[in-house]
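Think of the structure tokens as a kind of shorthand, similar to the way a musician reads notation: each symbol stands for something richer, in this case the local conformation of the backbone. In the example below we present two proteins back to back. Begin with the first one, reading the sequence and then the tokens, and try to describe in your own words what changes along the chain.
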Amino acid sequence: MAAPRYTFSVLVVLIFLFSPVYIAQRPPPGAIVPTTDDLRRLVATEELVLVNFYEPSCEECKAFYPVYTELAQELEQVDVVCVSHNGPLPEYGVNSFPRILFFRKGSPVLYDGALMHEDLYEWLELTRQPNLQQLFEDNFEHLTQASTGATTGDWLVMFSSESCVDCKVAIPVLDAVATKVKGRQNVAVVDVEKNPQLKDRFKVTEVPTIIFFRLGKMYTYNLPKMDIPTIKSFMEGWYKNVRAEAVPGIPTPFDQLVEKIVDHLKAFVATVKTDGAVTALTGNLVVMVTLAGLFVVIVTIVVCLTCTCKQDQKLKTE
């Protein structure tokens, strides 16, 4: 009877050791995470995770390791781990070693300071909460004051989407920039898939698109590098080398109506084209539809003005 019990005990231990629950357990300070899949699970389950990406043959990584393990012993409520990898990790924007990323509830921020104990510890205290802001259609103008002169300061905004790989790589960089300029300038992200009106308002045709808003003007980021020093330099003065554009105002219901009419006309023209040419008949139809659309617009304007005048007269008589 002892053999079956022994076999069952061994089986239970093996299941425990190789189960996802065991892998997802909190690692000891400075522990090496075996794979990037394990790292994804750790980042998804733990609130604060500090990660040192290193390459086994990297001499600088070896010199930094004692500093990192000492820091790991001091930090509270932070999981401190290492990930060994040969070659770049585009998923995390890691293209050199050692590379330090700090995940706050899954949101990463990139460290670009000196590999010294004091510098890293001070930086961690400043970045425990994400400094990169999220903007939406219902709070964009209220927070940025983009079209009125920016009483809330300068804003660097990246228009992105969840499906954009380059956008995901840029997030840790932008959060790091946000930490450096905190209190002086602002950095934010807009998801164009969830905020189509902002996408249309600023004529965003591709992601990522980065626009710098300052004193009622906007400057589109066009530098080839997307790293911390370059973006910070752009915000501090390089934007002056870019053509300034007036910030488009908030579209009114009338603006949206006109835009819909124009879109319908464009769609109509596209459907009546045959082999790249429009026949005389379809050309006449296009003219008729265009005139009809303009007529609707004019009538709408007249009605609105009439109602406004009547309301003003009524208020005066009262």
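Once you have a description of the first chain, move to the second and do the same.
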Amino acid sequence: MIDALSIIFTTFLCAALLPFAQSELPAHTKCFDQQYSSLDIDLKTVVTLQKLAILGPIGIYHVYTEISDGVFSQLLQKNGRPMVLYSSLTAGNAEWLTCSVIARGIRLVPVFRKQENVPVSVFVSACRHETEIVALDDRSFFIDSRSAGLVSMYENVLSVVFRTFSDGIFLFSGAEQGDLLVAQIIAGRVYIIFDFGSLSYMEISGGTALNDGAWHELRWVHEFDSVELIIDGVLENSTSPTGLYRKLDFHTEIEIGGRPFDAQSNTIQSSYRGCLASVRLNNIELLSFAPKDVFGPCSVSSHTTFECHILPASPLPNDHRRRRRLRFCPVLVSAACFRVPSAAGARRISERFGVEERESLCALFQQEHVHRDERELVVYKPHFTAGYEI
């Protein structure tokens, strides 16, 4: 009976979606609407997603996106909960998920296992990304703010999509009349320094372990009397500006990946090592004005060293009933932060550090520099030992 229903629904999909394209993106079209028959979608190029919809039996899906290297990140709501997409039975009643996310790949994961093999059709509305990925290695470049079309405004939005293992500065603008806008990352946390001309700057920060080598997005939103910092779609912090002024003026030259040598504070980072997929200020993509020689493949180094050897059988943490022969790899980490579950020391190490998730892992961490929140422990720049079964 279930197979018969699947055949009927598949036939219905083919008939209902016949007018829509099936595979390749339009060659020279900036924005497009495309239909796919898989929950794993390779868009072949980096795009800015506008809308998503699923046509199929009633179901719920979590949404993951990928920019490069096959590493997917889950889309989250502003309150930190997973973003969900509901499927619809007919195209006329399709429930669209509206977003503005840079991606090269999309993965839709059913919330319920019984949805895994159900035939669906996925609609994607997107625009080709305005620029290629920028790879910086402690060198910066300048953007002429007037040529870019930036003007003084009472409401401002800065968004940066970045990938790094290091501390660094994304953007620096210091106008002559005292206005200041700085975006940087220190110890895995994003800091935005701003001043609307009152000569008393403010700072807002948020995020944890953002220098883990994965893609992240910061969004600084200024709406006259309020300022918000959103990290990976989640509201991390908010504040109200002080002083009499609310309009932000920009310097004629905005520096990306660096700052002037005479900048007033040594707490501001001086360079950036990593990748940038987008630096958008007031809806203007600043990377589209970058010199051509900064564009290239995104390759970031974790600065890790491995020296593996075999140790005798040892129990896994929190499970003394299991005694296995373990391979232990002392790892010296100089730049990255790592997320670990709050269950006392046991964790999984991602593939980009050389160990696959299917292996049972354990880790022994130094106890200093450990921060606990509701979801996890975060260990900053630890020396640790990782083991997995052999």
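Compare your description with these statements about the second chain. Confidence is low (pLDDT under 50) at residues 1-23, 303-390.
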